Amino acid sequence: MKHTSAPRATAALFACLVWTAPTPAVCAGSPAGEHYARVEVPGEPTRYGRVEWDGSRMTLTEPSGEVREVDPSNASRIEFDVPRLVWDAEKPADGALADPWKHGAVGDLPHGGGAEVKSGKFIISTSSPDKEGFDSFYCAYRPLPEGDAQLTAFAARIDTYEEDTRAGVMLRDGTGADARNVFLSVSHRERARVRHWQRQGGTTVSDRRGDVRPGHWLRLVRAGGEVAAYISRDGGSWREVASFKDEFEGQVYACLVAMGDNPRRQWPATFEHVDVTTLAGMGGLRLVEPKFTLADGTVFHSPIESATATLFRLGGDNAGRVLPVATVARVEFFTPIGHDRHHHFAGDRTGVLLANGDFFESKLTAIAEGRLTSGSPLFGKREFDLRGPTDALVLRPAAEEPLAVLPWRAETWTGGKLVGKSIRVEGGELVIDTLRLGEQKIALGDLRRVFKQTP
């Protein structure tokens, strides 16, 4: 690989935990790893500052430096700033790539390519080889930290619509064309896919969902003897596409790649919010979990072990708990779902909502081993892959808000709404004691607000 280097600077990544725009936006809010909130206590002025928890006691450090202890059970409302899913880095300087980044062609690329930073974005320009071949592309690359580490980027644009032009993130154990690598990529015309290449051959896994295009977050994680590929719509919740045994040797490089067989001219791909860190620096990985909305307006997230026509068996932290189907309004398997399809959630029809917008009117039969079975008198039974293009199961209407039957209410940035009789903090999580679901845990970084209400 021929390469060039540039003056030293620091690459950056800023990402909001939740937003609705199709492209990411930097949002104001709490710095990474810290929680800021407005706290209302009856009879006292509203206070704002950095919040730290010690058991069920809360310490509030105001901008003036004054420190106050607050008993959350005495507060009437605690409203948190938008958290940032942020790494401690700065936006890259415009111009030539800064050390430790380099760039160059891999394989035969006679029409060349290039890499630069414009408006804080990585622009990788590539062209096509004289003959078809996967092994020719242009990339920006830098060493991946040793040990457990990750590469994240928002694949913002591919400025050509040719059929097999792709852009994505890659880990590889050398700069030669035959280096082992894992490549997660998106395309305008084809499904997202992961290619695992070893010297004795390669394996390609296509994403089960067909709606992933430029405008998605991509992440490769090297940890625990495996390399796993993840995709996210919002940069906050991730789903795994594939994982492979880690067979890298020596120095591993993190790469931003643009690749295609056509056109012959150069064309650019744009990457934003690029980050290369250890897993400790990444600050955690939240996987997409089914989002339950109950008929009474309660909203929470939980894995599903299985389901019958009458009962959901929950998993994860809710393992051993069951929910009658009659209490559930809908289950969203892939979030966020576009507002243009929320009319299906009215509950006037029961059935399965697919990623392409189709609605299969039917009744739930079972969920087992990642597949949902639903039956219709007209079309019979059909199976749906819950890791594929299945967005939601709609069962009945839901109340807009949970009834204020208990004194506490907690809400999350991902739409969760829980009411409970008491709250406490344990190990970085808010625990709210609910009637139907027992104790539910909410990571403090996911907590939007918690407040008292009048039952």
Could you please describe the fold and organization of this structure?
With 455 residues, the protein is an all-beta fold. Among the domains are: 89-286, Jelly Rolls (Sandwich), CATH 2.60.120.200; 291-394, no CATH class. The chain has one helix and 39 strands. β13 and β14 form a beta hairpin.
Q: What are the main properties of this structure?
A:
mainly beta; 455 residues; Jelly Rolls; 8-stranded antiparallel sheet; globular; disordered N terminus
The CATH topology of one domain corresponds to Jelly Rolls
CATH class of one domain: Mainly Beta
| Main sheet summary | 8 strands, antiparallel
Provide a count of the helices: 1
Strand arrangement, major sheet: 1-7-10-19-12-13-14-15
**Spatial shape:** globular
Assign the structural class, choosing from mainly alpha, mainly beta, alpha/beta, alpha+beta, or little secondary structure.
Answer: mainly beta
User: Helical residue percent?
Assistant: under 10%
C-alpha Rg, in Å?
A: 24 Å
Alpha-carbon distance between the two ends:
68 Å
What oligomeric arrangement do these chains adopt?
single chain
- Percent of residues in beta strands: over 45%
Low-confidence runs of at least 5 consecutive residues: 2-32
